[in-house]
Amino acid sequence: MRVASLIGCVVAVVMVSGARAADDFKLTSNQRISCGRGLSPGKLSTATCRSFAYLFNVRTSEYFRCGVSLSMTRDAKEVVNVQTDGGCVKRPRIFDADSSYSFDATETEPPNTNSFFGNGGYAVWASDNHAPKVRGCISIASGFGTDVSRCVDMTFDEK
């Protein structure tokens, strides 16, 4: 009986710690999608759509920038090719210490005539759920194959 109780307690602790680990990751609710069309030789047209989302570790403030794309090529009669791609890239911590954080992110508009540096960038915001601590970060494509990223701690004017 004691062994069964001990096993039950161990299983309960493992389940609770597993549930806690599952609660450490939150998907942002600010996903965007952008699509574009193009014409190819031979009367083919291609439509490409991309979307980005962020998976945030609310305990460590590490996050993943995830992207998915679908490209469809068709002629006048049928779809001739469909390609998909996707994955997540781990980004560094926003705060040095573990705590309980909230997070949000937004993407810039897709490339257009106003985009000087290629495909634009993104902004992320994180805040400590236990203290008035907010950090805003912006990443933009440099045009040289790397991103330039900077974070700023917000000051609170209490006038």
What key attributes describe this structure?
159 residues; 1 helix; mainly beta; 4-stranded antiparallel beta sheet
Description of the molecule:
The N terminus is likely disordered. The chain starts with a helix and ends in a 6-residue tail after the last strand. The chain contains one helix and nine strands. With 159 residues, the chain is mainly β. The chain has one domain. The longest helix has 22 residues.
Set down the secondary structure blueprint.
Elements: H1 2-23, E1 25-27, E2 32-40, E3 44-57, E4 63-74, E5 79-91, E6 101-107, E7 121-128, E8 134-141, E9 147-153
- The chain-level mean pLDDT equals 76
**Tally of structural domains:** 1
Distance between the termini: 64 Å
Q: Find the structural class using helix and strand composition.
A: mainly beta
Total strand count, please? 9
Largest sheet, in brief, is: 5 strands, antiparallel
Element order: H for helix, E for strand? HEEEEEEEEE
Strand content: over 45%
Q: Provide a count of the helices.
A: 1
What is the gyration radius calculated from CA atoms?
22 Å
Shape: elongated
Helical coverage, percent range? 10-25%
Extract low-pLDDT stretches: 1-20, 113-117
